[in-house]
């Protein structure tokens, strides 16, 4: 599966939720709903932190974890 497919799927999945879904990489914070932000940030086998806050955050966390796992990407989902 290509890098681009992972980015599109992450963005599309995040867009299904009203919660804020933000990916942290080093000192950058990227809105996962932003394709451009993801294209400029997701590189190689880096490790990321995912911050999810909002009314549907439990469902959003699980859905995003599933997409990251599917694409073999390392992510730590930060708790409340």
TrEMBL record:
Record key words, sorted: Sugar transport, Transport
SUPFAM superfamilies: HPr-like
InterPro entries in the cross-refs: HPr-like, HPr-like_sf
Classification via Gene3D superfamilies: HPr-like (3.30.1340.10)
The HPr domain, residue ranges: 6-69
Alphabetical list of Pfam families matching this protein: PTS-HPr
Name under which the protein is recorded: PTS sugar transporter
Organism per entry: Paenibacillus swuensis
Taxon lineage: Bacteria, Bacillati, Bacillota, Bacilli, Bacillales
């Amino acid at each position: 599966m290509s890098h681009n497919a992972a980015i599109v799927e992450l963005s599309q999945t995040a867009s299904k939720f009203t919660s804020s879904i933000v990916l942290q990489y080093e000192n950058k914070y990227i809105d996962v709903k932003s394709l451009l932000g993801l294209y400029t940030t997701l590189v190689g086998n880096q490790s990321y932190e995912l911050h999810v806050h909002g009314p549907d955050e439990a469902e959003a966390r699980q859905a995003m974890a599933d997409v990251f796992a599917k694409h073999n990407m390392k992510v730590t989902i930060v708790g409340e």
